[in-house]
Amino acid sequence: MASNNTLGYIIIDGTETMIRGAALITDAKGFPVDFVRTEPLRPDQLARILYGESFGKYAKEKLILESLLDAVETDPQLWICNDTDILTPLRENSRIKTVLLDESPHVPLDAAGHIEATADPGVFLIQAEPNGNPLRAQFPQGVRPEEVQQTAAVLTEAAATMNVLEPFTRLAKAINFLATGMRQV
Amino acid sequence: MGIRDFFARAVMRRRVKVYRIDDFSVEPPETKKGITRPKAHRIIPSITVNSSRPRDFTELQTKMKAPAVRMKLQWKNAAAINTRFRHYVKEDVKVQTYNFTKKPETSNSMLKQAQALPQERDNILKTIKKRPDSLKNEVILACYGPIVEGAVLKLVLNKQRGTLLVWYKAGSRQLKAKNVYLIRRLELGGKPEWRWV
Q: Do A34 and B177 touch (CB under 8 A)?
C-alpha cells in the first residue's frame, strides 16, 4: 500500500556475533505510522566460518532487509538508509526510490531544493532545509537524473515540517529500548 | 637349472596355507537398532519479524505459499490459526502462536512505544540567516524547528544537551510548521520565554 508524504527509514546494525534491523515509517511530521524490527540474528561459529567475511553483507541483504521489507505494511514514498551495504538491495527489493542520507560539512547551497553534484558518482548535495548545511545524498548506481530531482523534492517538502535525519536517532533508540526493555509478546 | 625351474621347484615344495572363512575371528559388525537420525541444523537460523500491526490473514496465506519464506512468523491471534491455515503452512516455516491474555489492541504496542519516543531538535540558531522581525527587541537564546505547533503534545528543553524534545499528538493532521524561539526580553529581570514564529 503506497502512502504519500511518508518517509521510510531503515537501519541494520550489529556486530560479528549479532545483527538486527528495524524500519520506521513516519508521516510528514516525523510521527511514526509503522514500525517493524527483527529479533537479533546470532550466527553461530560454524556459520561465521563458512560464510567468512561475507556473512555480514549476506545477513544484512538477504535475511534482515528482505524480512523487514516483507513485514512493512505501509510503503513509503522514499526509503532512507545510512548504510552503503543495503542501498542498492533496498532499491531493488522495494522498487521504491531510495537514498542514503548523511550530514555534510559543505556550506549551504543557494536555496532549499537546490542540488549539486559531487566528484563521487551517484553522490549529490541536496539543500533540503532553507537553513543549515546541505545533505549528502548517495543514490544507487545508475540512478536516473529525474529520480534525483524527485528525491530532492520529497526531501525538501519533508524538511519543511521535520528534520529528515532525526528519525535515525529515534530508530536506534527504539530498537535498543525494545531489545532491553520490552518483554516478548 | 634355470632360475625359472629353481623358483618352480621351491614354490611347489612349500605348502600353501589356505584360509577358510571360518578361521577368521572377525565378527560381522553389530547392527544397532534404534539409532536416532542425526539432527539437521540450519546454518542460518530463521529470523523473527515482529510487526507493529496484525497481519492480514489473506496476505499471510499468500506468503506461506512462497517457497522462500524464511521468516518465523508470529501470528498474534491464536484463534485464526485453523485447519485451513495449517494446510498452507510449509514444513520449513515455523509459526509461533501465542496465547494473549490482553485484548487484540496490544498488537500495536510496539508502534505505540515507538510513537511515545520524542523527537529531538537541535538548536539551529547559528544557521538562521535572518532574524525574525517580531523578535527585534528580544535577545534570542535558542531556536528549534521545524515543529508543527498545532500537533504538539509536549515540549521539554533538555538543558544538558541544549536540545528540545518534542512529543506530537497521535492522529493530528496539522502540518503547518514553525520555529520556536527561546527569548529573553531586554527589560531588566526578564525571564526566558518561548515564542512561535
A: no
Q: Which chain B residues touch A67 with a CB distance below 8 Å? A: 47, 49, 70-71
Using one digit for the tens of pLDDT, what is the confidence trace for B32-72? Answer: 444 445 555 545 545 555 554 444 444 544 444 444 334 44
**How many angstroms separate the CA of residue A28 from the nearest CA in chain B?**
7
What single DSSP character describes residue A41?
B
**Which residues of chain A neighbour B148 with C-beta distances below 8 Å?**
29, 161
Q: Give the list of residues 6+ apart from residue A173 with CB closer than 8 angstroms, or none.
A: B117
pLDDT, one tens digit per residue, over B80-111 is 444 444 444 333 334 333 333 333 333 467 78
Strand partners, A24: A9, A35
B96 vs A: CB within 8 A? no
Residue B172 burial (10 A CB sphere; 0-12, 13-18, 19+): middle
Distance from CA of A144 to the nearest CA of B (A): 30
Packing angle between helix A166-181 and helix B109-116, nearest 10 degrees? 130
Q: What is the per-residue pLDDT across A123-176, written as a single tens digit (0 to 9) for each?
A: 999 999 988 899 999 999 999 999 999 999 999 999 999 999 999 999 988 888
Q: How many residues does chain B have?
A: 197
> Which domains are present in chain A?
7-181 (3.30.2170.10)
Is A31 in contact with B170 (Cβ distance < 8 A)? yes
Q: How far is CA A184 from CA A21, B54, B96, B168, in A?
A: 17, 16, 12, 27
Burial B177-197 (b: 16+ CB within 10 A, else e): bbbbbbbeeeeeeeeeeebeb
- Smallest CA–CA distance, residue B177 to chain A, in Å, is 5
Q: What percent of chain A has pLDDT over 70?
A: 96
The answer to whether the CB of A11 falls within 8 A of the CB of A68 is no
Which of A24, A67, A161 is opposite residue B71, by nearest beta carbon?
Answer: A67
